[in-house]
Specification:
By secondary structure, the chain is mostly helical. It is built from five helices and no strands. Helices cover 54% and strands 0% of the residues.
């Protein structure tokens, strides 16, 4: 009788180990599955519509939060900080046209359009206005 218990115990443990290995294998397969796919021109899936693009121009606040805040939020490399009148006063004294030109063309460490290549000049001007108005 004790031999039967030992045999049953061995078979039971072997079954648990085998079942555990299968479960772990399933978990590994789930973790390494692709997260996306590609579609090449000429394939049926290539006819899918392009994702929607926001209609109309971006607001000054949208441009600021999407691009300008990285430097102007912390004053990176001498950028005037948003909300700090002392940082903006010497710049605004030169006039908004100068600020617009610097923002659009780039100035010192700031790249043209603050890295928002898709922004129009008017959107960049709106961002400048937003920062100046928020820093009085």
């Amino acid at each position: 009788m004790s031999h039967m218990k030992k045999l049953f115990g061995i078979l039971f443990v072997a079954g648990l180990v085998a079942g555990s290995a299968v479960a772990q294998n399933d978990e590994v397969q789930t973790r390494i599955e692709p997260v996306g796919s590609t579609c090449m021109q000429g394939e049926e899936c290539a006819a899918a519509p392009a994702p929607a693009v926001a209609a109309g121009p971006k607001s000054g606040k949208d441009v600021y939060t999407g691009f300008c805040t990285t430097c102007h939020g912390a004053g990176v490399m001498g950028a005037p900080k948003f909300g700090t009148a002392a940082d903006w006063a010497p710049r605004t004294s030169k006039g908004k046209d100068t600020l617009y030109t610097h923002a659009i063309s780039g100035f010192n460490a700031m790249p043209p359009k603050g890295m928002c290549a898709a922004c129009s000049d008017d959107e960049i001007k709106a961002a400048v206005d937003y920062m100046v108005d928020g820093s009085k």
